[in-house]
Design brief:
CATH superfamily: Cupredoxins -  blue copper proteins
Low-confidence stretches: 1-29
Number of domains: 1
CATH class: Mainly Beta
CATH architecture: Sandwich
Oligomer: single chain
Order of helices and strands: HEEEEEEEE
Structural class: alpha/beta
Strand order of the largest sheet: 2-1-4-6
CATH topology: Immunoglobulin-like
Shape: globular
Radius of gyration: 21 Å
Mean pLDDT: 82
Helix content: 10-25%
Strand content: 25-35%
Amino acid sequence: MFRSFLANHRSALFALATCVALGPSVGFAAGAPTTVDVSRFTFGPKEITVAPGSTVRWINHDEVPHTVASAQGQEKVMGSKAMDTDDRYDVTFSKEGDYAYYCTVHPFMTGVVHVHK
């Protein structure tokens, strides 16, 4: 019985060690998106920092529509439709940089995504 117990645990430890050693090169799904909550006419947090290849998700919790759009004078990376309550908008940032954005419906609502290694 003890040998069976030991053999099962060795197999489990070997499987765990293999997963750790192979790490992300196996092609596991990327981590969960970083979330920006849209509520009370603000983006929260107003500024976030993520690594290249990360996805940012905006979720509208207000009762009125909002958008997420690249700030004027910046490369157009973001451009959501009007998001109703509980709608989501995702962007994956592949290049390093600082990406300012705003709500086209309420231009006083602004934020920045910092993408750095």
